[in-house]
UniProtKB/TrEMBL annotation, chain A:
One of its GO terms (biological process) is hydrogen sulfide biosynthetic process. With CysD forms the ATP sulfurylase (ATPS) that catalyzes the adenylation of sulfate producing adenosine 5'-phosphosulfate (APS) and diphosphate, the first enzymatic step in sulfur assimilation pathway. APS synthesis involves the formation of a high-energy phosphoric-sulfuric acid anhydride bond driven by GTP hydrolysis by CysN coupled to ATP hydrolysis by CysD. Catalyzes the synthesis of activated sulfate. ATP binds at residues 473-480. The lineage of its organism: Bacteria, Pseudomonadati, Pseudomonadota, Alphaproteobacteria, Hyphomicrobiales. PANTHER family: TRANSLATION FACTOR. InterPro entries: APS (IPR002891), APS_kinase_dom (IPR059117), CysN_GTP-bd (IPR041757), CysN_II (IPR044138), CysN_NoDQ_III (IPR044139), G_TR_CS (IPR031157), GTP-eEF1A_C (IPR054696), P-loop_NTPase (IPR027417). The active site is at 547 (phosphoserine intermediate). The keyword ATP-binding applies. This is Multifunctional fusion protein. Sulfate-activating enzymes, NodP and NodQ, may be physically associated. Heterodimer composed of CysD, the smaller subunit, and CysN.
From TrEMBL, chain B:
The gene is cysD. Its EC number is 2.7.7.4. Heterodimer composed of CysD, the smaller subunit, and CysN. It is an enzyme of class 2 (transferase). It comes from Filomicrobium insigne. Residues 277-300 are annotated as: Disordered. Residues 28-254 form the Phosphoadenosine phosphosulphate reductase domain. With CysN forms the ATP sulfurylase (ATPS) that catalyzes the adenylation of sulfate producing adenosine 5'-phosphosulfate (APS) and diphosphate, the first enzymatic step in sulfur assimilation pathway. APS synthesis involves the formation of a high-energy phosphoric-sulfuric acid anhydride bond driven by GTP hydrolysis by CysN coupled to ATP hydrolysis by CysD. This is Sulfate adenylyltransferase subunit 2.
Length: 641, 300
């Protein structure tokens, strides 16, 4: 039976492109655009109107819509076009759009993808998501209200995400009497503000989304308006094509090895073009060769351009793997492990300086830290403010430090090669987005100073193996007591030791830090660094810190080699710690006199796989030390005796 | 000559997504449901990895109630391209004798499709399942991500979706979790047909109009594909010129009256059409938001 299907598609009976598909015939590329505005501005109504005017609303959908309009509609008089686009049921009931929704429609000239994103401040992350792939933004303004703070926020985000084409859709002109003076006033206000941002390509159009004025055709109610109707403008706008003439970039997604004779590199041309015989360089390694062939399912090509998904084979056998970037040999991308970037924070848990995140840029993935938060940006006033952490929807300029160099271009030059996401290492959520501004020079110029004596030699001189013994547990769990006893025991065994104690370190090195979550992260980062230096110096280093967060203990662990780090969890139940209360802190915390107190008003994340779990509530300190000594003997840190 | 219009843009995007799946996951699989979207998906998979074969098997979650022509087409396709095809039927469902007629569409779909899919993913420990769903199919799908995360118990949480920026897809998973991946997210029904025409992609003949034995029930035209469909008193199948816009379990799939016997005629018909694609699906009708509910429970 399948043969029947095949035979129906012989070339005779099937033209390559349907004669009726005018959008395809016109050969216009897709236009991806974003609509910005709030429910009140009529954003969903505008999209509904465009779909309706393009006759994309089917009879059964319309019928369902009439039913829904009676239950959820806000227009009162007729079918509510906004309901066409408000997707999830929860949103429909609340009358707001929460997430990014994508809509598709086509006119006879062009096909469109609309990212419909919510307007309120708490949904900045959604607008940023929609804007990342858009070439144009429609910014909706209510003609009665004019340019408001929200308009500024939308424009700022559109600009930040590299959108060059703005349509200022001045809506509800029906409620402003189609007044030309009002329109001109709003347009002029907007242009002044947009110029400050650097947005220049602006088309202002007076519309009524509800009634359809100047949407698909020019309205008789605005005879003074000389520009195009909205859809005419969208059909004809030519979006920036500079990426097509930029130097070649093709990130390698997958290595294609069907047999021993073929080795090709699969990817999409991200910038520029490539021809057979072109000189290319593979970054970050930096080896150069020529393109031998451009392979596709539809036959080999002589040349491929931006947007083509191809497989390249190379003249010389060089080592190329996923994440490498094939570049024009004469204009290479940058390679650096430190750079400055604008970051948009997308998680409920704030971004913290010093906390490790996974950075993904193209097909490259590495661990990174925010080394400095230079300033946060107020997207309404464009003012810069200082801060230690970034909360949900905050935007800030940061310096990042990566655990290995990545290949990139600046975001201004190439959105795909300069945009990255940050991923939480524990939850795997995408928690932030970033746009690279520039590589930090120090990344190029500061190299590790190699020294001739290493830590093993230093430790050997002391007749020992160096390690870090990290005690974690609640306040009052007995960490300091046990650590103190352990050091005495090690000292008696002739070992060279040092104790870093939480309270003591806060009197000096960390006296500038408080007890907020971000300060606690920085506290641990510094202590981990000091402990690492001490292990490097050959010492048995005991660290006694509450260290409540898994992510930071993991960060500490990663500063050491596997055999050098011992996480000891002093597992004493909260009730017992609270009864002991050696410093009277629990009492104060319960009375509300101490904020952010671990176990009471700030969480303690217990270790999942510590090297040793000590029953601090049931065993005496001496017995716990015996247990630690046995573990250290077993691990070969100290000799059995 | 290569097309430079929007079909090329959509094709490149889909190929990019396929390659990301191959690059990011250990054990991917492609859901193959035999419909037109699956045909397009398979064609794109072949393009994505050429000259190699797609580095994953095809999986068909069979309910036992598919049209006979679909099954024949499926077996032929797997054979022709030399691809591994896994056919999975929910054994529990078979043992309990679950069927669309005896148990109703909701229970049948849940047990044989939703549960069947879960069992299959668990059995083979697939960490990514590529599917042909499109955002234009239904309102709740409009917000689904291209890489759509599923918890270890296969639930989709519309409030906890990972933001997708640029063409960066976060495929990181905790043990037991899996990802559903939708390369055709940005395609419309029209794009699918235009692409089938342009690329001359084979499809199940049921999409094309032909005289078929039909009974009319609650306004839906149901094809009597075999003798398991009990006829009501006085009900006599009529030969009618019909075709199907979507294909599923035959007792649950309504045909439309049509004269379109070629893909070009289908496109012309689509142009003039005033009803949306999923209208023929009995399962979507019960209430507004019903697809959203099914998806949260793990329906594809």
């Amino acid at each position: 039976m399948a043969e029947t299907a095949v035979s129906r598609f012989t070339p005779n009976s099937s033209p390559t492109i349907s004669a009726t598909n005018e959008a395809a015939e016109a050969n216009m590329p897709l236009l991806r655009f974003l609509t910005c505005g709030s429910v009140d501005d009529g954003k969903s109504t505008l999209i509904g109107r465009m779909l309706y005017d393009c006759q994309l609303v089917h009879d059964d959908t319309l019928e369902a819509l009439e039913n829904e309009s009676r239950s959820y509609g806000t227009t009162g008089r007729e079918i509510d076009l906004a309901l066409l686009v408000d997707g999830l049921q929860a949103e429909r009931e609340q009358g707001i759009t929460i997430d990014v929704a994508y809509r598709y429609f086509a006119t006879s000239k062009r096909k469109f993808i609309v990212a419909d994103t919510p307007g309120h401040e708490q949904y900045t992350r959604n607008m940023v998501t929609g804007a990342s792939s858009a070439d144009l933004a429609i910014i909706l303004v209510d003609a009665r209200k004019g340019v408001i703070t929200q308009t500024r926020r939308h424009s700022c985000i559109a600009h930040l995400l590299g959108i060059k084409h703005i349509v200022l859709a001045i809506n509800k002109m029906d409620l402003a009497g189609f007044d030309q003076t009002r329109f001109a006033e709003i347009e002029s206000n907007y242009r002044t503000f947009a110029a400050e941002l650097g947005l220049t390509n602006i088309t202002a159009i007076p519309i009524s989304a509800l009634d359809g004025d100047n949407i698909s055709s020019l309205s008789v109610r605005t005879p003074w308006y000389r520009g195009p109707a909205l859809l005419q403008h969208l059909e004809s706008v030519v979006v920036d094509s500079s990426i097509a003439s930029a130097p070649l970039r093709m990130p390698v997604q997958w290595v294609c090895r069907p047999d021993l004779d073929f080795r090709g590199y699969a990817g999409t041309i991200q910038a520029g073009s490539v021809s057979v015989g072109d000189r290319i360089t593979v970054l970050p390694a930096g080896r150069s060769t020529q393109v031998a062939s451009i392979v596709t399912y539809d036959g080999d090509l002589e040349r491929a351009t931006v947007g083509d998904a191809v497989v390249l084979t190379l003249a010389d056998e060089i080592d190329v793997s996923r994440g490498d970037v094939i570049c024009a040999a004469d204009v290479r991308a940058e390679v650096a492990d430190q750079f400055a970037a604008d970051i948009v924070w997308m998680s409920e848990r704030p971004l913290m300086r010093g906390r490790p995140y996974i950075l993904r840029c193209g097909q490259q993935s590495t661990v990174c830290q925010i080394s400095e938060l230079k300033h946060k940006i107020n997207v309404e006033t464009l003012e810069h403010t200082a801060g230690r952490e970034m909360e949900l929807n905050a935007i800030g300029l940061c310096n990042l430090s990566l655990s290995k160099p990545i290949v990139f271009d600046t975001y201004a030059d190439n959105r795909e090669a300069g945009g990255f996401i940050l991923i939480d290492r524990l939850t795997n959520e995408t928690v932030g987005a970033g746009m690279i501004r520039f590589a930090l020079r120090r990344a190029h110029n500061i190299h590790w100073q190699a020294v001739d004596i290493d830590k093993h030699q230093r430790a050997a001189m002391k007749g020992q193996k160096a390690c870090c013994i990290w005690f974690t547990g609640l306040s009052g769990s007995g960490k300091s007591t046990v650590a103190n006893l352990l050091e005495k025991r090690l000292h008696a065994l002739g070992r060279h030791t040092y104790i870093l104690d939480g309270d003591n370190v806060r009197h000096g090195l960390n006296r500038d830090l408080g007890f907020t979550e971000s300060d606690r992260v920085e506290n641990i980062r510094r202590v981990a660094e000091v402990a690492r230096l001490m292990v490097d110096a050959g010492l048995l280093t005991l660290v006694s810190f509450i260290s409540p967060f898994r992510a930071e203990r993991r960060l500490a662990r990663e500063r050491f080699e596997d055999s050098e780090f011992f996480e000891l969890f002093v597992d004493t139940p909260l009730e017992i710690c609270e009864t002991r209360d050696p410093k009277g802190l629990y009492r104060k915390a319960r009375a509300g006199e101490i904020a952010n107190f671990t176990g009471i008003s700030s969480p303690y994340e217990a270790p999942e796989n510590p090297e040793l779990r000590l029953q601090g509530g049931t065993l005496a300190p001496e017995a716990l030390v015996d247990e630690i000594i046995r573990t250290l003997e077993m691990k070969g840190i100290i000799d059995k005796h | 000559m290569r097309n430079t219009g929007h079909l090329r843009d959509l094709e490149s995007e889909a190929i990019h997504i396929f390659r990301e799946v191959a690059g990011q996951f250990e054990r991917p699989v492609m859901m193959y449901s035999i419909g037109k979207d699956s045909s397009v998906l398979l064609h794109l998979a072949l393009k994505s990895f050429y000259p190699a074969k797609p580095p994953f098997p095809l999986l068909h979650v069979d309910t036992g109630w598919k049209f006979r022509e679909m099954i024949a087409f499926r077996d032929n396709v797997a054979h022709r391209y030399g691809l591994e095809l896994i056919v999975h039927m929910n054994q529990e469902g078979i043992e309990q004798g679950i069927g669309p007629i005896s148990h109703g569409s909701a229970l049948h779909t849940d047990v044989m499709k939703t549960q069947g899919l879960r069992r299959a993913l668990e059995k083979y420990r697939f960490d990514a399942a590529i599917g042909g769903a499109r955002r234009d199919e239904e309102k709740s799908r409009a917000k689904e991500r291209i890489f759509s995360h599923r918890t270890a118990d296969h639930r989709w949480d519309p409030k906890q979706q990972r933001p997708e920026l640029w063409h960066l897809y976060n495929g990181r998973l905790a043990p037991g979790e899996n990802m559903r991946v939708f390369p055709l997210s940005n395609w419309t029904e029209r794009d699918v047909w235009d692409y089938i025409a342009q690329e001359e992609i084979p499809i199940v003949p049921l999409y094309l109009a032909a005289p078929r034995p039909i009974v009319e029930r609650d306004g839906a035209l149901i094809m009597v594909d075999d003798n398991r469909l009990p006829l009501k008193p006085g009900e006599i199948p009529q030969q009618r010129m019909v075709r199907f816009r979507t294909l599923g379990c035959y007792p649950l799939t309504g045909a439309i009256v049509s004269e379109a016997t070629t893909v070009e005629e289908i496109i012309a018909e689509l142009e003039a059409s005033r009803t949306s694609e999923r209208q023929g699906r009995v399962i979507d009708r019960d209430q507004s938001g019903s697809m959203e509910k099914k998806k949260e429970e793990g329906y594809f």
